Amino acid sequence: MKNILGISGGIRPGNQDSAATLISNGTIIACAEEERFIRIKHAPGVLPENAIRYCLKQADLDIKDIDYIVFAGATYDSMTQILTNFFNFKFGYCPKIVLIDHHLAHASSAYYASGFKDSFIITADFSGDNRSTVLWYADKSGIKELESYNKPNSLGLFYATITQYLGFRYDNDECKTMALAGYDSKNDCILNDFLTIKDCGYDINIKYLDDRIMPGKTNPSRQEPLFNKYLIKSLGRNFRKNNDSINDFYLSVAKSAQTSLENAYFELIKKLKKLKCKSNNLCLAGGVALNAELNSKIAYSDEFKQLFIQPVSNDAGLSLGGAIYIANKQNSLYMKKIENLYLGPDFSDKQIKQTLLKNKIKYKYYPAGAEKEVANLLAEGQIGAIFNGRMEYGPRALGNRSILANPKNPKIKDILNQDFKERELFQPFAPSVLEEEIDKYFDLPKTKVNLEYMIVNVKVKKSHKKDIISAIHVNNTARVQKVSRETNPFFYKILKSFRQKTSTGVLLNTSLNKKGQPIACTPSDSLSIFYSTPLDFIVIGKCLIKK
What we know:
- The termini are far apart.
- The protein has helices at 34-38, 49-59, 79-91, 102-114, 155-165, 174-180, 229-235, 248-273, 292-301, 317-331, 349-358, 371-379, 412-420, 438-441, 489-502, 523-531; strands at residues 3-8, 19-24, 27-33, 68-72, 96-100, 119-128, 131-139, 142-150, 195-198, 201-204, 281-285, 306-309, 364-365, 384-387, 401-405, 430-434, 442-443, 448-449, 457-460, 477-479, 481-483, 506-511, 537-540, 543-546.
- By secondary structure, the chain is of the alpha/beta class.
- The protein contains 16 helices and 24 strands.
- The strands form five sheets. An eight-stranded mixed sheet has the order 13-24-23-14-15-22-16-21, sandwiched between helices. A six-stranded mixed sheet has the order 8-7-6-11-12-18, with helices on both faces.
């Protein structure tokens, strides 16, 4: 048996999304992000000590049982020694260390999890191992690199720079830029000189960027701009301060950035289509693959028969990618398609009751589960939270650490944004829908794509828009989660019961957290969120708590 531990994160400036993944004999045992344990979003500048301990405990293994530690940082100076020191100091022993390329880990996380026999792969992000975009082809013989773009010629850097120009935090708030891009604008902002689209490719104009973005230099901190005065001069307007209003000009900048990103991506797809190697499948990974609107454009383009987007496309997914890559290389195992992301910690009834008792909290216990009661309360218009089973791996709450509401109420979106999440009113929420009813509410693309992870925007049918009005974007799309009985019976039963009460098989779903915080990991985390927000009720396991 081979036990492989993949890790991400690191101690260098810019390292974040620290995580750990344990694969044992070709089976994924556990995945978790360090932020959930230390309660600091993205866990910047640290290695995943707590996530590693969780993975070992979940597998009932000691560190000495691990055959390989895999880290995605092939060009990092002294990284082997740093990791050796870390494991010897924190765990008393260091297994064999393998360093692999950052983008190869991203590519592996997508391809080996897709279940495809062959596929093209695009990995794109800010940068990793000095590269920002890589094109690949994969089949049973392995993953082959076709072409790469080096930092700072980066789509992720381009989008991050515009995100920062719009007054948001890069590497965190790109979703806000994407949301703003959906609004109509009377202005006509053009970013063609910053991101030039050319036949089968793109070019970033470095004169718009701070000198420290150049290769071999340390990036500016997140408190400093990525761009310089040339971008401000070119756009004819100063960057937006955090508290400034978002006027029509800034909407036009967001829209232009999204359009430019999409156009560049389709040129890369055009290049893949011209190559000698052929495939009807495409896999996406890297931070750019979290752009659900871009993913939507690709899905509806019918360029490929099958599309798989790695739902953990941020750097937390490197822990999975590195582990999967070595698992295949060492054991000659063809990894099966990942069926779900419920791979984090869970808590027994006894542990949950002990937490409630310790905090002197009254609750009602439902031996058979509280799913029907949750549905009843939501149907009455209450807003509630569920904490159940294993925590989700990745940036999305998928029904185990979620806040839920009735999407038919047109006021719910603003209520959640303002009173619960304390965020801008333009930010949308996602709908979770019964698998058998997804065609009822949405016009799905012909391309077969994984819709279980809130990673793709799909078109909403006008005939049912009013049923899910608070979970729809301004461009009449929704970042959907398809829920099946097999992958999450608890959440499925809630949706099923809610449909029986309201004739709507959809719930608005957002992550169980507060502004600036990671998703809840423990029962105590969930209680802290419950009592510091206007939530009406929360179910923790089989225990229902009301205010």
